[in-house]
Design goal:
It is built from nine helices and twelve strands. The model has no long low-confidence stretch (mean pLDDT 96). The strands form two sheets. Strands 1, 2, 3, 4, 5, 6, 7 and 8 form an eight-stranded mixed beta sheet that branches. The protein is 31% helix and 29% strand. The chain starts with a strand and ends in a 7-residue tail after the last strand. The chain has two domains: 168 residues, Ribosomal Protein S5, domain 2, CATH 3.30.230; 115 residues, GHMP kinase, C-terminal domain (Alpha-Beta Plaits, 2-Layer Sandwich). Strand 1 and strand 2 form a beta hairpin. The structure holds cytidine-5'-monophosphate (C5P). The site of cytidine-5'-monophosphate (C5P) has 11 residues, from strand 2 and helix 5.
Length: 301
């Protein structure tokens, strides 16, 4: 059987609003998620038994705590119990960053094993498995995986409105944001901790999701920035003021907007042109190890 390699892109949250706390302990989300051109590469190799993870990163677990491992275990037990897989994760997405690095690896494993072992699960079945693994995994699977060359599965870039825990997805028009700068500060934040400390009555800035969608649908990438906000900043910036400082500096350097992604701590900024974006990239690169200048993720037509 062949080996396959899949691109697993990171996401940013262009808006992130929370409507309240649910009886299951999770929070009711309304968030626009968007895949960017920063991706891990997942290589899958069939094995007669056992799940083995190898990686170039020293920051990710190799056992069942890894979402990619959970994904492999789940889909193999439903498709071909007893068989195994070797998963090589080329880690390029910062870990614990709010960019869905672990979730996107799990999504790629589901799509890849479905293909490799000819499991024939439908898109809906795969999305259900994804949601059971983690709140962001379904979105990461939402970009369509396809096969331009026999040895590779790529994902088409996705933008979607996510509601519920993050698993109720509605596809949005494809738009390319050309100049995105991501700065990951040198600390991590626990997603569970950030959510648990959220006090909606203390939030000062909410996204205007209705207007965001109107402008997005028109293709007006410059003006989306007016309507973007992330309510989780109210917690993360209190815990780590450096996030707020990075945001203000990015705005001063000419960004249209700068926002934390997910529960943080990564901050992304949208720039109006390449020259200003490159200047900001250079300035932050002198201070931070994980800084990326990129555009939206786009493959296929
Ligand atoms: O689903 P996942 O394991 O990725 O979520 C991590 C944590 O983030 C959850 O344990 C929960 O505390 C919090 N969360 C939440 N509401 C969501 C998504 C995540 O409270 N919609």
């Amino acid at each position: 059987m062949q080996t396959i390699t899949i691109e697993a892109p990171a996401k940013i949250n262009l808006t992130l609003d929370i409507k309240g706390k649910r009886s299951d302990g999770y929070h009711e989300l309304e968030t626009v998620m968007h895949q960017v051109d920063l991706f891990d590469r997942i290589t899958l190799e069939p094995r007669t038994s056992g799940i083995e993870i190898a990686t170039n990163s020293s920051f990710i677990p190799l056992g069942p705590e890894n979402l990619a491992y959970k994904a492999a275990l789940m889909i193999l037990s439903k498709c071909q119990p007893g068989v195994g897989v070797k998963i090589f994760i080329e880690k390029n997405i910062p870990v614990g960053a709010g960019l869905a690095g672990g979730s996107t690896d799990a999504a790629a494993v589901l799509a890849g094993i479905n293909h490799l072992y000819n499991c024939r699960f439908s898109r809906q079945q795969l999305l259900e498995m994804a949601a059971a693994i983690g709140s962001d995994v379904a979105f990461c699977l939402f970009g369509e995986y396809f096969e331009p060359r026999p040895a590779e599965l790529l994902s088409r870039g996705a933008t979607a409105m996510a509601r519920g825990r993050g698993e109720l997805l509605e596809s949005l028009a494809t738009r390319i944001i050309p100049y995105i700068l991501i700065v990951k500060p040198d600390f991590d934040l626990s997603t569970a901790e950030v959510y648990s400390e959220l006090d909606l009555s203390a939030v000062e800035e909410f996204p205007d999701t209705g207007n965001f969608l109107q402008v997005w649908n028109k293709g007006d990438i410059i003006n989306i920035s007016v309507y973007m906000a992330n309510v989780l900043e109210s917690v993360s910036i209190r815990k780590k003021p450096e996030i707020g400082i990075i945001k203000s500096r990015l705005i001063k350097m000419g960004a249209l907007t700068a926002l934390m992604s997910g529960s943080g701590p990564s901050v992304f900024a949208i720039f109006p042109d390449n020259e200003i974006a490159c200047r900001a990239y250079q300035a932050f690169k002198n201070e931070y190890q994980e800084v990326y200048l990129l555009s939206s993720y786009k493959r296929g037509d």
